[in-house]
Design a protein that fits this description.
The chain is built from two helices and two strands; from the N terminus they run ααββ. The chain has about 70 residues and is α+β, with helices and mostly antiparallel strands. The chain has a two-stranded antiparallel ribbon with strand order 1-2.
Length: about 70
């Protein structure tokens, strides 16, 4: 018999948001959607991809910036 832990609605919503984030990342990767992947990060993130392990230069470098009017 297993025991169950009761969590609050807020904790359940947090867990769901984390799960959706974790699932969205490979979904975008499989579709080569760099814009979608970078959108998953904070506004001032640097997204660097190395496709060739022997090359010291990144294959892809993208930045997100938060623009405030």
């Amino acid at each position: 018999m297993s025991s169950r832990t009761t969590i609050s609605p807020s904790a359940a919503a947090d867990r769901l948001a984390i799960r959706e984030l974790v699932e969205a990342y490979p979904h975008c990767a499989d579709r080569r959607d760099a814009d979608g992947q970078t959108a998953l990060f904070i506004a001032d993130a640097h997204f660097v991809v190395f496709m060739n392990p022997k090359d010291r230069k990144p294959t892809l470098f993208a930045e997100r910036r938060l623009y405030v009017n």
